[in-house]
Amino acid sequence: MPPSYKLIYFNWKGRAEGARYIFHLAGQEFEDYRVTKEEWKQLKPKTPLGQIPILEVDGKQLPQSHAIRRYLAEELGFLGSSLWERAQINVVCETVKDFAPEISQFFAEKDETRKAELKKAYLTVGVYKHIGNLEKLLKQNNGGTG
Ligand SMILES: N[C@@H](CCC(=O)N[C@@H](CS)C(=O)NCC(=O)O)C(=O)O
Predict the structure, then answer these.
(1) First-to-last CA distance in the chain?
(2) Confidence at residue 2, expressed as pLDDT on a 0 to 100 scale
(3) Is this structure's pTM higher than 0.85?
(4) What's the pLDDT band for 67 if we cut at 50, 70, 90?
């Protein structure tokens, strides 16, 4: 019998969306549990690292979004069939991770004017560098087919 999966995160895409994609791609049922800000205050002290996402597998808790995605990819058959394939997949994962620091920068900014400037700079320039890198990887791997 397959394990029971519960993915716990806020009601937005953020650090849980990759795991949600993996579940959907695999056709694997899971509980997509969306925590409210109020609920989070109660839940936070009971979590392994005081942060979400958390994946519960048969009740066991796994924190850290990258660890969750890699675990699910391996468990659900998306982590390659050789060490070389796995390394190539990890190259894509690391390239996707490169998006995060700039997004976090404007997300965390408290000054609304500065936040808008950082967001605009990211959406008009920064993001294209990372998308360009993903496109290079796609071309180098025959459009993702191998
Ligand atoms: N390195 C962690 C970072 C997790 C993280 O920063 N989670 C945020 C939401 S995106 C969080 O739990 N914020 C609420 C809090 O820290 O109380 C991961 O990738 O899972």
Answers:
(1) 31
(2) 82
(3) yes
(4) very high
Range in 48-62, 71-85, 94-108 with the lowest mean pLDDT: 94-108
CATH of 5-75, one of 3.40.30.10, 3.40.140.10, 3.30.1440.10, 3.40.50.1370: 3.40.30.10
Q: Can you spell out the DSSP letters for 29-71?
A: --EEEEE-HHHHHHHGGGSSSS-S-EEEETTEEEE-HHHHHHH
Ligand 1, atom 14, residue with closest C-alpha: 51
Cis peptide bond prior to 53, omega within 30° of 0: yes
Q: Where are the domains of the chain?
A: 5-75, 83-144
Taking the centre of ligand 1 as the mean of its atom positions, its distance from the CA of residue 44, in whole angstroms, is 10
Q: Which residues line ligand 1 (CB under 6 A)?
A: 14-15, 44, 51-53, 64-66
Residue whose tokens read 């650090």: 15
Cβ proximity of 144 and 135 under 8 Å: no
Q: Hunting for tokens 């991770």 — which residue is that?
A: 97
Between CA 90 and CA 109, with CA 125 as vertex, the angle to 5 degrees is: 85
Predicted confidence (pLDDT) per residue in 34-49, tens digit? 999 999 999 999 999 9
